Amino acid sequence: MLLARSSFCLKRTLPFIYSRSRLIHSSTNIKQKEDRPKEYELRVGYAIATLQDDIPHFFQKGLTGHSIYSHDIILSDPHYTKLSIHGRTPYLGIAQMLKWSTSLYFDTILLEITRMRVLPTDIDIDNYDDTDDDFSSFSSIDDMENDVKSKGIVRCLEVRWKLRGTKNPTFFQPEPRIRHIEGVFIYKFDHQGYIGEHRIQRIVPPPSRRVLLMHSLGVRLRSLFWEKRPPILNPGF
User: Fold this and answer.
1) Residue 10 and residue 193: Cα distance in Å, rounded?
2) Residue pLDDT, tens place only, 82-133
3) Would you say 74 and 198 are in contact if contact means Cβ atoms under 8 Å apart?
């Protein structure tokens, strides 16, 4: 008797669940979800657009788009200071300190992005050769949006930049001093589309020992105030 009653309920329920209107409604919802841009892609696209604006104006405005960085972002410098700083608050503070300290060396600073490119998802950053000057694999700033769309999922972004610093003439230095610096940054995105790591890949010419000492000491002092844990030093520092 119980089995017969269960079969009767099942027969009455199945047509209701799999009615034509409900099937159409379900397929429409699935299609809308497929057509809707993923949050990851939106965040990455917004982060790239923000970097394109923030980097050239860094020494005038600083970093304005704080939301593109993960709360656990890592600032890593494996080649020069050997520092690895964790956390968005220390990261933004160090960026502000760099902006202030560099303005002590130069009166006028011009910073521009020369090239950007999306790196392969399976790339080994530790063994990555950033001296590749084959610009055919790079995108201009205007073409970066199309490049990102063609690459699909973006995990790593390489940014090449150059800086021109000018020190005005003084009584002891009658001629203006001009210095040119070029560098490579690599930005790695986390699983949510935020910038999870900012890696200082290369600076040419390399910073002097005096500059490295001043910046590394300043970074340590700021990290002691802003981080719950001290900076992680790689062996060999």
Assistant:
1) 45
2) 888 899 998 998 888 888 888 888 999 999 999 999 998 878 877 777 666 5
3) yes
CA distance 214 to 98: 11
Pairing of strands 69-76, 195-204: parallel
Q: CA–CA separation, 230 vs 160, rounded Å?
A: 30
**Surface-to-core class of residue 6, CB atoms within 10 Å of its CB (0-12 exposed, 13-18 middle, 19+ buried):** exposed
- Give this prediction's pTM: 0.70
Question: In this structure, is the dihedral angle defined by the CA atoms of residues 78, 56, 39 and 69, taken in order, positive or negative?
Answer: positive
Give the SS3 label for residue 67.
helix
| Calpha distance 75→155 (Å, rounded) | 16
Answer whether 113's CB lies under 8 Å from 101's CB: no
Helices 209-226, 88-105: axis angle to 10 degrees equals 150
Strands 108-119 and 156-167: antiparallel
Peptide bond into 231 cis (omega under 30): no
Q: Residue 108 corresponds to which amino acid?
A: T
Q: Which two tokens stand for residue 236?
A: 């060999």
